[in-house]
Known about the structure:
By secondary structure, this protein is mainly alpha-helical. The chain folds into 2 domains: 157 residues, no CATH class; 312 residues, no CATH class. The chain has 21 helices and 3 strands. Strand 1 and strand 2 form a beta hairpin. Helix 10 runs antiparallel to helix 11, helix 15 packs antiparallel against helix 16 and helix 16 packs across helix 19. It starts with a helix and ends with a helix. Belongs to the ThrE exporter (TC 2.A.79) family.
Amino acid sequence: MLDAMDGVDSESEGEDERVPLVYIDFDGFPDVEHLLMSLSAIHEAERGVQDSLRSARTRSPVAPRQMLTHADIHQMYAVHGAEHFAEMVNLVLKLSLAMMTFGQTAADTEDIILSVSSSIGLPVIHFQVGLNSLDASFHGGIVHKLGFSRGLDADKLAATISLASLIANKVGNVQGAVDLLDEIFSHRAPYGVVIQKASFYGLSVLAALAAFMGTSEDVLAVAIIMPAVMLVQSCCRRFCSELEAFAVALAVGGLTPAVARLLHLPLCDVPVIYLSPLLTYLPGSQLTYGAYEIQFGCLHNGVSQLGSCVVRCMFLSLALLLGWQFFGHRFYTGPTASAAAASMVPVNMSCMFPYSWEVVFLAWNVPLLLVALIGLNLPLKKMWAPMLIAYGSLLVYIVLLKHPAVAGGIPDRIIDCIALFIAANMACLYEYKTATPAVLAILPVLLILAPGSKVVLSVLASMQGAKLSVQMEPVLDLMLQGVAYAAGLTLALHFWRPFLRRKARKRCQQHMY
């Protein structure tokens, strides 16, 4: 689930480099409604006045890591005699990049942008969000093609979605919204770098118990491996972020046999050790979003995401196998081990569930959810409701899965659908009451379910087989899980969408009055 955690530890270019390494912002981003109204009022007061600060901002890029500046957009539309549309285009492009960078789905981004464009009076000729780029054309026929890097920042995503809802309901003005988006991009994360690193360490260690049902010895092994893994991760983010997942899996594959030998762990414990540090790199939200976007017409984007999930699992498997060759030779020396098999990565997880599911899901899931939400940059003050929603949904999921008398023989994929349906309904109810985006409570559920682990194990088994054979069942099962999650998500969101929009209009009308 790298797509969900990618960019959590990295600092955006607009942030102050002198921020302390250890800090906690309990509140997160300030109230969006009051900021938008204040910035809009300032703009109205400065209308017609040459503001040096505003002139300087026109030379800034529309978003971090972009070449296109505000001044470029104004110049493009001035040439075509449509300069009065330039600031609207600037807002729409900036808003699109913010939503995709902070974790919104492509299908929902397109829907929101069309609503915002209609509200501000900007004619849209074409708007399409791809896997890592967006294509847009507005009045005048100028085509914009901008790249972005998908990630997730829960605090900034919530602020961006709230801003989009306000603009769609005609609260504030365009310049105030542009200024507020600049503030959102540059706002520092709610946690310092040290706390973010500690949350990643804690998530990986706790995953051995709560996500992969391992033993206390597995937890110790993961705790020993993680400092080296985090060093590799930091180096990759500084010098070559494209190789991060592969390099981390390579390091995990190299260190796992050495630590397993040191602690004298059985073979069936080994998969838990190498899967736990890779939890955030396994496909989770991307898998569900891929199926979700295919369902709602974003065929190219959805198929690309589903395909990238499978290929990512293959890359992780190959990196694990390659890293295993450093210290894994003759790892298994049993009587039936051949010379080749003795150096292969174990894929048997028969040691799972040494503790009862009640202990895991009632106790260990609490700290796991806590560190997961910190890693997603959700401020402490806004954390309790998403945590309760995720906790309740996971509890229903495991009860249906482990108690046939309760489930009544319901298939596993239907249980997946039910779990996400319940999580999405509770998240939408919370959004209806508080205006907090529902996606913040849904993502932790997808992270802990970790659907890509079975595919990694299957690909490893295929790579290490005597004959080259691709086992399609786990791959198809992975996609079926994504479809099941997306179905539960879709049913809940589309039931609640008209109610949420009506509630948002009422809030905005009350604020305007």
